[in-house]
Design brief:
heterodimer, A: alpha+beta, 4-stranded mixed beta sheet, 7 helices, elongated, B: alpha+beta, 14% helix, 30% strand
Chain lengths: 266, 69
């Protein structure tokens, strides 16, 4: 949003983003939903506020989670060496060999770090800067808290937002496979590996241009699932069945995790 | 309106992400495996459970954190 505001000459001086995350029942399992509140600071007209609200909905991560922008190719590779593409159809799959732990409610609060914005000698923005993100949620018995940094800055010390979200997708996939595949005594979950390759063509210009215009840009991703065993001991249908339960994969396929949205000038 | 002008992608792309389970409740994920110009950036994610502390947020939270950033 900082980049879209800069490109549009909007006097955005600061921004804070709050999400509430909660479990949501969906067909075949438990998904998740979010309630978003964006607080803009600066001399911002109603038309500019609406434009920035659109940018929030159509940023690359927002598009992936709510607009079905990800075009996913899946393949499975067994430790025995065989590789095959995973069919996109999901009829007559076996029942998964376990259950996923439902997400617990929590909050995410992001603050923009103004002093990480980078400009050239003429004052033209070169990098939008970084955000500090606080995450608070419950374990089974008590509250847990973490801080992460993400954004766009030149030293390469923090990850950009889109790869951060895709890392979450890879992690979610690994969690889902380790929970639902028939591992038993013969297969070790530590032999699982999930690899995601992303097409990053277009970069920030495409991301910010499409966000400003409210335009969905499809992005290709290939996900390789390396699993223990061989095609007989770990059938591809068991992998498909597990993937069909993965909460972030389902958010990418179905969209709809945004339960409520407010963008206010405060 | 939609568009798809991104080329086919391969896992040899520099922005490869690798995730592996560490134990029953923990996954270690690395962004930028093989990219020697930036990062790499590691993340730990966890699954709520009765037995151990969560070393990192559940993956859904990390995903939305990327959106928030």
């Amino acid at each position: 949003m900082v980049g879209v505001a800069y490109r549009g000459g909007i006097g955005l001086e600061d921004i804070e983003v709050d999400f509430e995350l909660e479990p949501v029942e969906r067909a075949g399992g438990i998904g998740f939903g979010v309630r978003e509140k964006v607080t803009l600071k600066g001399n911002i007209s109603e038309a500019e506020r609406v434009r920035l609200q659109r940018a929030s909905r159509y940023c690359p991560v927002g598009q992936a989670l709510t607009r079905g922008s990800m075009l996913i190719e899946d393949e499975v590779q067994w430790r025995s060496g065989e590789v095959t593409a995973i069919p996109s159809t999901s009829d007559n799959l076996p029942v998964p060999n376990g259950t996923l732990t439902a997400i617990r409610p929590g909050t995410i609060h992001a603050s923009y770090l103004l002093d990480t914005k980078e400009c050239d000698g003429e004052g033209k923005m070169e990098h939008e800067g970084e955000a500090k993100v606080y995450i608070v949620t419950e374990n089974a018995t008590h509250t847990s808290r973490w801080t992460i940094l993400a954004g766009h800055s030149s030293p390469g010390l923090v990850p950009p937002p889109f790869p951060t979200a895709q890392a979450a997708w890879a992690a979610s996939t690994a969690t889902t496979l380790s929970s639902l595949l028939p591992l038993g005594d013969d297969h070790d979950a530590r032999d699982l590996q999930v690899e995601v390759g992303l097409s990053m063509t277009g970069g920030r210009d495409l991301a910010q241009g499409s966000a400003a215009e409210g335009r969905v840009v499809h992005r290709n991703a290939i996900r390789r699932l390396i699993v223990p065993g061989n095609p007989r001991s770990m059938p591809v249908e068991a992998v498909q069945s597990a993937l069909a339960q993965d909460p972030i994969t389902n958010a990418y396929r179905d969209g709809g995790i945004l339960l409520d949205e407010q963008v206010v000038v405060g | 309106m939609t568009q798809n002008n991104t080329p086919p992608v391969s896992l040899e792309t520099r922005r490869t992400i690798v995730a592996r389970p560490v134990d029953n409740n923990t996954v270690l994920t690395l962004i930028g495996a093989g990219d020697h110009t930036r990062g790499p950036w590691p993340f730990i994610t966890g699954t709520p459970n009765l037995n151990t502390d969560l070393p990192g947020p559940p993956a859904q939270y990390l995903s939305v954190a990327g959106w928030a950033a």
